[in-house]
Amino acid sequence: MVELNILDTEQKNERTKNIDILSTLEVLKLMNDEDKKVAYAVENELENIQKAVDITYEKMAAGGRLIYSGCGTSGRLGILDAVECPPTFGTDPELVQALIAGGMMAFVKAVEGAEDNQELGAEDLKAIGFSEKDILVGIAASGRTPYVVGAVSYAKSIGAKTISLTCCTNSTLNSLTDVSITLQTGPEVITGSTRLKSGTAQKMVLNMLSTSVMIKLGKVYGNLMVDLKATNEKLVERAVMIVRTITEADDFTVRQTLEACDFSAKTAIVMLKCNLTAAKAEEAINKARGHISNIISL
Predict the structure, then answer these.
(1) Mind listing the pLDDT tens digit for each residue in 94-125?
(2) The predicted structure's pLDDT at residue 3
């Protein structure tokens, strides 16, 4: 039996105990006041987030993958972060992946009992060929979800590095992982509803983790997403804007250059700044391990 009363995320918030009889504006103000605490909870964990970024970068720079494991809201947040990496940073969809208890169907509809299956957490990792080269982030607000504990335990058993992202102190997950990020956001507005402050805090950390790693991998130049994939009209125009901003070339030249390199903003930038063909620009980028700051300067 799960002892909910001992979990930080299940404590009653005295400030919201009468929320059911408040006016709409009073409810909103109360929720907004509680949400203001989230950024401070994240700030308190910056040193651990830094450790997580650094070991994730080390693994990914050596050819490993970043894998998220979670259930319910935590699992869905992992999916949201993973699916944004290819269009934003031009990564292969396999590089950052998210596993959720119950499979992808659980993203839109709860799969009862899946999160209680510890063996399933390990089996889902095995199914994607998870190895010691990869890194696992176990996401669970309570820090005790069996599915995630099973995934982390398996990852550790094969020598992989692990990170936990929880909102409860002294949790099972915290005791298992190489790096523990514990977001002390306090009792939820609605008791136990971790899609609120806990979920917001987890989303902020996932944003920080993946974005910081991608910056270190050379996916960003200045503060521009030079590896974006121009897969729709908006992203095509963003690619044009990025190349034009960095090279100061005219619109026609930028579009012509992008067309010559399959709309790779990074390649187009090096072509224009260094007067190279697409092939030579890509060769230079590969030699620089993707960091065009080693080829050109702002």
Answers:
(1) 999 999 999 888 888 877 777 888 999 999 99
(2) 64
Average pLDDT over residues 268-297: 94
State both tokens at 54. Answer: 């650094």
Burial class (CB in 10 A: 0-12, 13-18, 19+), 83: middle
Out of 10, 34, 45, 115, pick the active-site residue: 115
Model confidence at 2, pLDDT cuts 50, 70, 90, reads low
| Torsion, CA 251, CA 254, CA 256, CA 261, rounded to 10 | -160
**Complete domains list, the chain, with CATH:** 8-217 (3.40.50.10490), 221-296 (1.10.8.1080)
What's the whole-model pTM score?
0.92
Q: Is 115 a catalytic residue?
A: yes
**Cα dihedral across residues 231, 237, 238, 244: positive or negative:** positive
| Residue 1 clears pLDDT 60, i.e. is over it | no
* More confident call, 103 vs 160: 160
Say what the pLDDT of residue 289 is: 93
Catalytic residue among 58, 84, 123, 282: 84
